[in-house]
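Dear colleagues,

As part of the handover before I leave the project, I'm documenting each prediction I ran so the next person doesn't have to rerun anything. This entry is a single chain, and its sequence is reproduced below.
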Amino acid sequence: MNESAEPATGSREAADAQAPSRRGRGRHIALWVLQALLALFFVLGSAFPKLTGASAAVESFEQIGLGMWFMYVVGLLELAGGLALITPWLSGLSAICLIALLIGAFTTQMTVVDGENAVFPLIMMVPIAVVAWGRRDTLAGLPRLLGR
């Protein structure tokens, strides 16, 4: 009976040793799903209307008063950020840059526009900050990659 208890304990210990790797794998998959959803939002939901000159985007940027060139620049930044979110070695940097873009959107909403939609950039910062934190290890490898 003692011998049969040892394998059960051994297999339990082996399962406990694998638990962090399963949790790490689950966290990794959850981050990729979040990154993909955010990328879809930034590419299709945010950049595309600006880059195609959708009337709602044009009206919003006319209120800002910097000209339509600014709408296209913001659209290109959102497109680049969305695509970089799903690029493994750029995902952490992309998330940080998108947070900076959202801070600009929030500031513009509060100072130039009526502030009606100012909460949306703040809400979007939360999942992007999760990606930035979860992919912070990609930031450490960037100097090495750029040095090649």
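The first helix runs from residue 2 to 51. The radius of gyration is 22 Å.

All the best with the project,
I.
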